[in-house]
Design goal:
Layout lengths: L2 H4 L8 E7 L3 H4 L11 E4 L3 E5 L7 E2 L10 E7 L6 E7 L6 E3 L2 E3 L4 E3 L3 E6 L2 E8 L6 E8 L41
Parallel strand pairs: 1-12, 3-4
Antiparallel strand pairs: 1-11, 2-12, 3-5, 5-6, 6-9, 7-8, 7-10, 10-11
């Protein structure tokens, strides 16, 4: 056997890709302490903490409006499964954290979906989990977005949809005031 054949099989690590956006990044440089475009290993038994306190957090956001510890991520394996996941916990007493459509208050936690958008204040973070097999550590890979992750979306028309499936004509004037109709008519 050659030394190549005797080497241990290389494990791939679960990687959490996080793309950060803030509208004033260019002016205030709040992400200047983050290490972008380079994967970093985090031990599985450590919590990945994000916030402004460099003594408590590995991922520092330079912004006085960010809590000392804003949120934490815990890597874990689901019970009776080989699937690895992350749990996100809001550590801020003052700021709510939103994960997709779920709002988390202080000390609330949920499983991080495989792909989601994390928001607090003006911060937007796209989080995407890439599966791996390593059990002793996971990796983070941080990216910087130049444009908002949450784009302004056109809201659908707020016209009611009738129960019988007959849609009102689109040519009706939008200025007409609503008419109350008895539901038995």
């Amino acid at each position: 056997m050659t030394s190549f054949e005797e080497n241990e099989t290389e494990e791939t690590a679960t990687c959490l890709h996080m793309t950060f956006y803030h509208p004033y990044q260019e002016d205030k440089m709040m992400f200047r302490c983050l290490n972008f475009c380079k994967r970093e290993q985090v031990r599985a038994d450590e919590m990945a903490k994000f916030g402004r306190d460099s003594n408590a957090c590995h991922y520092n956001l330079v912004d006085t409006r960010v809590s000392r510890v804003q949120f934490s991520l815990q890597f874990y394996r689901k019970l009776n499964s080989s699937e690895f996941c992350f749990e996100i916990k809001n550590m801020s007493k003052k700021t709510k954290l939103t994960v997709d459509q779920t709002e988390l208050g202080y000390l609330n936690k949920i499983d991080l979906p495989w792909k989601c958008i994390i928001c607090f204040g003006d911060y937007q973070i796209l989080a995407e989990i890439q599966e791996g097999e390593a059990t002793d550590y996971f990796e983070t890979h941080l990216h910087l977005a130049k444009t908002p992750i949450l784009q302004e979306r056109c809201l659908p028309s707020l016209q009611p949809i009738p129960e019988k499936g007959i849609f009102p004509s689109l040519s009706l004037s939008q200025d007409k005031s609503p008419i109350e109709i008895d539901e038995n008519e």
